[in-house]
Structures are given as C-alpha cells and as structure tokens.
Amino acid sequence: MDTGHAVNVLDGPVSALRHLIGVLALDAEAAPLKAGEMITTGTLTRAFPVSPGQRWQTALHGIDLPGMDVTFV
C-alpha cells in the first residue's frame, strides 16, 4: 500500500529516540525510559484508515528485524 523510509521520522528512528530521551530529561515529572519498555518513533508511511477484519503486514528491508502481521477486530 505504501513505502516508507526511516528519515520520515525526525530524520530517523535514532534521532526520534534521542529527542524523546532529551524531552523526558527536561521534565521533572516524567520518568526516564526503563529497560523493557516498548516505544514507537512514529510512522514511516502515511496513516491509513483501519477496518475490522483487515490484515496488515510489513516487510522490512535493510534491517535485520522481523516484519509485523496484525489482524484488526
């Protein structure tokens, strides 16, 4: 449906994570990130509407990570 690139998210996921860590460090009420927490750095593609019963999958290239496979209920 769409092709995305890491630079679509604040110049890349590492830059987005660096920004989040910096923002949290400046906020006295915010807890720092902890080991095991899952975060998302944003979407690499345009956002599309989701309908019940749809199955969405990702295929990643250039990074050794498995893709995602989710069915919406």
Brief characterization of the structure:
By secondary structure, the chain is α+β, with helices and mostly antiparallel strands. Helices cover 19% and strands 8% of the residues. It has a two-stranded antiparallel ribbon with strand order 1-2.
Structural commentary:
The protein is globular. It is 19% helix and 8% strand. By secondary structure, it is an alpha+beta fold. The protein contains 1 helix and 2 strands; from the N terminus they run H-E-E. It has a two-stranded antiparallel sheet.
Biggest β-sheet: strands ordered side by side in the sheet: 1-2
Number of strands: 2
What radius of gyration results from the CA coordinates? 15 Å
Approximately what portion of the residues adopt beta-strand conformation? 5-15%
Order of helices and strands: HEE
- The number of helical elements comes to 1
As residue ranges, the low-confidence spans are: none
The rounded distance between the terminal residues' Cα atoms is: 20 Å
What attributes does this structure have?
73 residues; alpha+beta; two-stranded antiparallel sheet; 2 strands
